[in-house]
């Protein structure tokens, strides 16, 4: 008889893989980003209306709209239920996750390393420094 895996006997690398599968894929190409922004700006939207909107805004055929929509639904970003398209994650959540992925991938998850790299190339204004201080103070409470 095959032994079922419980949380206690799952290897750390398997847990990491399981978490990654549960998260939506957060990378979008330029065109996919424009499409996603259309949905976020108009949701909930009927899929037929979305196809018309994409024809006007992106010069897409209906089939292109439905194919890209299906891909983004499969990636866990949107859903199409009974012909109504809506987001599973908000625009803000999506872009926050993208930022976290950049920090994780490029800076080993170190926010201080990211800020150090950023500020070496671009000086922060007094207002930006104060805003960052406020965010840090709020995050610490």
Strand numbers in spatial order across the main sheet: 1-3-2
- Please summarize the sheet with the most strands: 3 strands, antiparallel
Mean pLDDT: 84
Counted beta strands: 3
Give the second-level CATH assignment, the architecture of the domain at 30-91: Orthogonal Bundle
User: Tell me, what is the CATH class of the domain at 30-91?
Assistant: Mainly Alpha
Instruction: List the helices and strands in order.
Output: HHEHHEEHHH
Q: How helix-rich are the residues, as a percent range?
A: 55-70%
User: What percentage of the residues does DSSP assign to strands (E)?
Assistant: 5-15%
What CATH calls the topology of the domain at 30-91 is: Arc Repressor Mutant, subunit A
Number of helices: 7
Give Rg in angstroms. Answer: 20 Å
Supply the helix-strand structural class. Answer: mainly alpha
Overall spatial form: elongated
Low-confidence parts lasting 5 or more residues at pLDDT below 50?
Answer: 1-10, 14-22
What is the terminal separation in angstroms?
51 Å
